[in-house]
Predict the 3D structure of the following.
Amino acid sequence: MSHKDKPAVAQQLSEVFPLEDNEMKSFEGYEEFITFVEKWERKYPALRKYKAERNSAYFTYMDFPAQVQRCIYTTNWIERLNRKYKRTINMRTSMPSEKSVIFLLAAVAMEETKTTYGRRIYQFKSWKEKNKKAVEVQRKER
């Protein structure tokens, strides 16, 4: 990407992916993203691949309250758990079977759930209560 274009692209992306106090819904965010891609695809043709409909799933976090959006779209928790898995596997030189590896990784995940990932996010509770009917309708549709 050209150094001249970086500030403009960054500014427009910050509008497409607002971080705080966002009232935008997922379909609106996806439409904004498509507009962004259409504006820049002539200059940067590699952006065309992001216009695929399947990429709309990346915007589902926008349907949640702003307080929990960052928890949803970040991958820090996943990366941390993967690091724990790698560290645990590297400490063992060999394992007796594939099943024992699965049990070991499950034990790591359970331990992390108790210590790190077990904390409650209270904003989800208020969101769930407020949107209880919508959640029930979605469950019935599945």
The chain has a mean pLDDT of 81. The chain is about 60% helix and 0% strand. Residues 75-142 form one domain.
